[in-house]
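pinned: reference chain
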Amino acid sequence: MDDIYSLPFLTIGEEQIDLKQSLGYLQTFGRLRPMVQEIVTQHILIQEIQKREDLNISSAEFEQAVIEFRLQQNLTNADNFQKWLTQEGMNYAGFQNRVLLGFKLDKLRTQMAAPKLEEYFLKQKSLLEQVELNCLIFDEQELATSIKNQIVENKTTLEQVVKEYSLMNTSQVKVLRGLTRRQNLSPEIRQAITSAKVGELVGAVEMVGKWCLFKIEQVIPAVLDKQLQKEIENQILQEWLAEKMQHLPVNFAFNL
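pinned: its structure tokens
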């Protein structure tokens, strides 16, 4: 009997690649560990789903979940749906199983987070605020300092500088603008603007060999709406998974 690890796993052109060789490629280029972590994550989740009896789904809920999935993925057309199944390497039964597991995972996430949701929100409320930032990132400290002085002396405004550099094709200055939660900012940026008020100019701040000027345009307090609730549920689930993985030894059954 052939060793399972030497059996064909992929066909690339006319060449067959076995499982051991495929994993060896991933290991060589540093992609094996993330793949293994993903496999372990899915294993833990499926085990948890299988052992729980409070994640049942009715036929009506399942049919609605199938419809919503196909609508969200633009797969209402029968031909497009069949093409997608082929690309995914699954039949209709496999598709149904994916939808079913996805639905149960949503239920698991919600039920797992429910007892901790309010406490987590209150504890992390300041980090869950949304901030709208204007940010200029300079290669040179001298240019950053010069621009800041011009703004302080009312010779220009940050908005005008942002506008000018947004239109310029230059690598010396990068412009970042947008609305995001404080927790999603890098630690350096988060620390720099911790005590800044709306409209205040912050910087120049050194960050990874660059020099940055910041201005907070607005701060939107965190409200526990459906979107934020889902984000918190995901965070709680990820923390649970991380704790589980920390205590699970994972070893290969063969040497690469």
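why pinned: The chain has a mean pLDDT of 88. The chain is about 50% helix and 20% strand.
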